[in-house]
Amino acid sequence: MNTKHLKQSMTFIAVIAALMVVYLAPAAFSQDDMTVVPADAFGILERPQVAFEHDAHNEKAAIDDCVTCHHGRTDDGLMDTENSSEGETCESCHPVNPVNGETPLMRAYHRQCIACHTTMAKGPVVCGECHRK
Ligand code: HEC
Ligand code: HEC
Ligand code: HEC
Ligand code: HEC
């Protein structure tokens, strides 16, 4: 291979690498980097967005089983407490304004977060402790 061809293929590789960075970037976001509960689905928020450091929270709270929060859906449309749905958003099964009787997104969060904090007598349970300015 002569120098010109080498340069051309290096440029080609650089372009491909740059494109891969652009296309793979969204996939690099994972729960380790999560500092707030995603709230885009709600549109304009009535309350300040809720802080939630995914990994740190779960470590402090000593929750080992992912299915505790990431339950799935059975074929009958019931809550599946055996099979984890980690990687799927809550919204994918709990729309903000459901048309088929599913638990709406806000209620899904409130029930899940507040129920556990109440049971364990630890963690925030009033509006302003979660929705902090
Ligand atoms: C244990 C934490 C927690 C508590 C306590 C809590 N919320 Fe929330 N709430 C959430 C989470 C999580 C969401 C979804 C993510 C977000 O909106 O930041 C949410 C979403 C909402 C939303 C829809 C999004 C928006 O801002 O428009 C409203 C409205 C809301 N909460 C109001 C309240 C009110 C009123 C109270 C008290 C009666 C309350 N919340 C108590 C965790 C909590
Ligand atoms: C205390 C509840 C809780 C526990 C326990 C938990 N997660 Fe999550 N996780 C969440 C919430 C809330 C989100 C944001 C969901 C959304 O975007 O709709 C999330 C998001 C994620 C995401 C990003 C994709 C997505 O669903 O938005 C991954 C991946 C994930 N969790 C993996 C895990 C794994 C693996 C475990 C077990 C080691 C785990 N989670 C345990 C609450 C929890
Ligand atoms: C694969 C689908 C699926 C995903 C993803 C999912 N859920 Fe559910 N969830 C269900 C089904 C099905 C039910 C039972 C029917 C219903 O209430 O909508 C349910 C029920 C619930 C309930 C009980 C409601 C009640 O009336 O007591 C809560 C709370 C809840 N989900 C919170 C969450 C949260 C928070 C997340 C994200 C961390 C989540 N769910 C992710 C399918 C799912
Ligand atoms: C299965 C139980 C459980 C669930 C579900 C749960 N939490 Fe917690 N959370 C805890 C416990 C236990 C603590 C107290 C940890 C400690 O300080 O010892 C806590 C503490 C917190 C705190 C205080 C600061 C911190 O990170 O320690 C915040 C904020 C919080 N939780 C938000 C949330 C939100 C938002 C959700 C719903 C998306 C949620 N939690 C769901 C058990 C839970």
Key structural traits:
Cytochrome C3, 133 residues, single chain, two-stranded antiparallel sheet, elongated, binds heme C, 2 domains, 3% strand
How would you describe this protein?
This protein is mainly alpha-helical. The protein has two domains: 1-29; 34-130, Cytochrome C3 (Alpha-Beta Complex), CATH 3.90.10.10. The protein has helices spanning 3-24, 54-60, 105-120, 127-130; strands at residues 72-73, 79-80. A two-stranded antiparallel ribbon has the order 1-2. The protein is elongated and about 70 Å long. The termini are far apart. The mean pLDDT is 88. Bound molecules: heme C (4 copies). One heme C (HEC) is lined by residues 37, 39, 42, 45-47, 49-50, 106, 109-110, 113-114, 117, 124-127, 129-131. One heme C binds at residues 37, 50-53, 57, 60-61, 63, 68-69, 109, 112-113, 116-117, 120, 122-124, 130.
